[in-house]
């Protein structure tokens, strides 16, 4: 429910009146930062794999120009990566590696397939994302990433499918809870990018879900 409140300044003088959300117990509904972004319709997700059909990972080693998932952030937009959930399949007995990073240039999108981000707040399901998301890396994107900052790293020697005591745990990037580095990606004048590499030293298939919050450059930096 919403109730109108009067906004006052430090001197107690009356200001403008605005509505605020109240619980049934007549207390203000106060959300944490990310829940507030969800409420505002700022949080989107995309990934690789659908239902029981994972996507093939063709890379056998980490190469920055060959991401498996990528978000190209246009000039004037800033994103905050929030969560990544990776579920590998058919990994074989070979070294598995995951590298999550960001760069300050446009890596291009050659050899990748565009995918449409979805708003995690169904109220805003008709509001499109401001970024461009890509999946199914089948080769170099076109330009070497520059100004790279690495945000998360996973290394695993055992065959993921051989892990016993099911369920096989996913690999999780969750910087709010210490699983990776928090970051802001975006520039007022140039394209920047968020890059995900998940590879096996042999053929493998993967599912993944990536979630982020979006802002205009002016909203995020107040300019």
Tell me what the structure shows.
The chain has 223 residues and is mainly beta. The chain contains two helices and 15 strands. It has helices spanning 33-39, 217-221; strands spanning 2-8, 14-21, 43-48, 55-57, 69-73, 77-89, 96-103, 113-115, 118-119, 132-135, 149-156, 171-173, 185-187, 192-200, 204-216.
What is the strand content?
35-45%
**Gap from first CA to last CA:** 33 Å
Number of helix segments? Answer: 2
The number of domains: 2
Low-confidence segments: none
Radius of gyration: 20 Å
Return the structural class.
mainly beta
Overall 3D form: globular
Provide mean pLDDT, rounded: 84
- SSE ordering: EEHEEEEEEEEEEEEEH
Count of DSSP strands? 15
For the biggest sheet, the summary is: 7 strands, antiparallel
Primary descriptors:
single chain; 223 residues; mainly beta; 2 domains; 7-stranded antiparallel β-sheet; 6-stranded antiparallel β-sheet; 2 helices; 5% helix; 43% strand; globular
């Amino acid at each position: 429910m919403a109730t109108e409140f009067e906004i006052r300044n430090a001197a107690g003088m009356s200001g403008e009146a605005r509505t605020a959300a109240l619980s049934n117990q007549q207390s203000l509904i106060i959300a944490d930062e990310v829940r507030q972004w969800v409420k505002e319709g700022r949080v989107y997700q995309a990934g690789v794999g659908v239902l029981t059909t994972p996507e093939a990972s063709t890379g056998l080693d980490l190469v920055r120009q060959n991401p498996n998932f990528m978000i190209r952030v246009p000039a004037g937009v800033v994103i905050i990566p929030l969560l990544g959930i990776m579920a590998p399949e058919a990994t074989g007995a070979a070294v598995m590696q995951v590298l999550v990073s960001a760069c300050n240039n446009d890596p291009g999108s050659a050899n990748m397939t565009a995918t449409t981000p979805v708003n995690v707040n169904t109220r805003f399901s008709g509001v499109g994302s401001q970024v461009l998301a890509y999946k199914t890396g089948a080769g170099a994107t076109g330009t070497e990433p520059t100004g790279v900052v690495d945000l998360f790293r996973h290394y695993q020697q055992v065959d993921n499918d051989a892990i016993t005591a099911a369920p096989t745990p996913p690999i999780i990037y969750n910087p709010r809870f210490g699983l990776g580095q928090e970051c802001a990606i975006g520039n007022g004048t140039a394209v920047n990018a968020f890059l995900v590499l998940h590879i096996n030293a042999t053929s493998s298939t993967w599912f993944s879900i990536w979630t982020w919050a979006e802002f205009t450059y002016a909203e995020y930096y107040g300019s």
